[in-house]
Amino acid sequence: MILVAGGTGFVGGAVVRELRRRGLDVAVLTRDAKRAARRFEGLGVDLREGDVRDAASLAPAIRGSDAVIGCQQFPNSPIENPSRGHTFEEVDAKGTENLVAVAKAAGAKRYVYLSGAGAAPDAPYHWFRAKWRAETAVRQSGLLYTIFRPSWVYGPEDKALNRFLGMSRFLPFVPLIGSAAEQRLQPVFIDDVGRAVAEALVHPTADNQVFELGGPEVLTMKEIVRTALEVSSRRRLLVSAPKALMKLASSVLQFAPGRPLTPHAVEFITMDALADPTRAELTLGIKMTLLRDALATYLAPPRSEPSDRLP
User: Fold this and answer.
1) What are the backbone angles phi and psi of residue 305, rounded to the nearest 5°?
2) What is the mean pLDDT of residues 109-121?
3) Per DSSP, what are the bridge partners of residue 273?
4) Is this prediction's pTM over 0.85?
């Protein structure tokens, strides 16, 4: 039995689907089993309620699990909401420490953690320091472990690239933040992340290893959005708003209902995200998918659909 913490999220959901595709027994740790049941209907997943921030709630959920995969995220990540405990420190760092301790006590043998490219004890951003704290708990657990550090993950359910594309449905332009021509990203397809995690469970050479996961191309945000528009057969202008202006606006928006944007979130979505997938590809026998090829699997319109197609 493999327990996936955060299995209802974007990354965790892909991991769950890949594991089930391979016929493995999967349990999902969720705060709301009723809601999760709709997401995994017909998939044969065991739903177990628990909250990574509450160690006492985890023991019944983890019991009987041979491996635990930690890819939990707080709602609306990366926009933190401290009043609700939705922060990197509470969910990534403390949540992983709780999961690791309970998993070890319950007799689990293996832990796989989805960290982030840039995690370090002296990282300039607190989210990377929180992920390093989580990695430290995993490395010091005494369990067999594999740590993945993905870069910028995209796919049918992501809330980053799809937000830009959503705007293109009703706007003649797509707004970007800051100097989108300079921000360097190595976008990694969500299906490749799912495959990497699944392979780590069966490759002994992945034991006690840390792998970066990035796509095969280094691109700017402007190039990524332009490629997505082309695959979607849409023609739109790309317009950049100054980062300083967006941070000023977010300093007000952070107090609005739902906290739609915060200054820290602006920093998060405008930072570089690079990761070298070479070791993961060689060790796990996987091949990262080119951006255009991956986007075509879910963005290309049906042939019969009329749209403002590019020549």
Assistant:
1) -80, 120
2) 97
3) 185
4) yes
CA 25 to chain centre: 22
The secondary structure of 87-115, three-state, reads: CHHHHHHHHHHHHHHHHHHCCCCEEEEEC
Angstrom distances, CA of residue 141 to CA of 69, 93, 113, 146: 14, 14, 12, 12
DSSP symbol at 173: E
Q: Which helix (H) or strand (E) holds 223?
A: helix 221-231
Calpha distance 117→189 (Å, rounded): 15
- For residues 273 and 117, the answer to whether their CB atoms sit within 8 Å is yes
Express each pLDDT in 210-266 by its tens digit: 999 999 999 999 999 999 999 998 888 888 888 888 888 888 888 888 887 888 888
What phi-psi label fits residue 246: left (phi over 0), alpha (psi between -120 and 50 degrees) or beta?
A: alpha
CA distances from residue 113 to 14, 92, 100, 134, 200 in whole angstroms, order as listed: 14, 10, 10, 8, 11
